[in-house]
Design goal:
mainly alpha; elongated
Length: 160
């Protein structure tokens, strides 16, 4: 029972650190991409800042999909660093919990996060990427794209 409670505690701490890193990198990436989009669209006088922000906001989930393994890595490092500084790992080891027993909850949580990223986050980011392309096409050239004129028949994600 104690090991189950401690496992849930370590998993919650890991997920908290992972989400904090993910949200932090999300906002940082939105700001950087927004600045880049403002630079690219500075020659077009009729473009609002909100529409440029929406283009950046819709592009970022696709970018973060590539950074997701690093978010998990940095989240795990910050989680276990915090646990070590608060001497919680020392107490767990003194209670007879092996290192594998307090690493396993983070590994299971990372696996569940990967399943969530594959089944939920990937389709959402592909949809947002398509919205970004459509909005950027409309902003830059004032014409909706052929894909925007058609209903959402297919989401195609092309990668290198």
């Amino acid at each position: 029972m104690i090991a189950g409670t401690l496992s849930r505690y370590f998993a919650a701490r890991f997920l908290g650190a992972l989400l904090a890193v993910f949200v932090g990198i999300f906002f940082l990436t939105v700001m950087i991409d927004y600045i880049e989009q403002v630079r690219r669209t500075s020659n077009f006088p009729n473009i609002s800042g909100l529409s440029v922000f929406l283009v950046s906001f819709y592009r970022v989930p696709q970018i973060l999909e590539r950074l997701m393994p690093f978010c998990v890595l940095v989240g795990a490092m910050s989680c276990y660093l915090t646990l070590s500084r608060r001497l919680e790992l020392v107490v767990a080891r003194a209670a007879g919990i092996s290192a594998w027993q307090f690493v396993a909850p983070a590994a299971i949580a990372a696996l569940l996060f990967g399943v969530f990223a594959t089944t939920v986050y990937n389709p959402v980011s592909a949809t947002f990427q398509e919205r970004s392309r459509r909005l950027e096409q409309e902003i830059m050239f004032g014409l909706p794209t052929i894909a925007a004129q058609m209903s959402n028949l297919w989401i195609n994600q092309i990668t290198a």
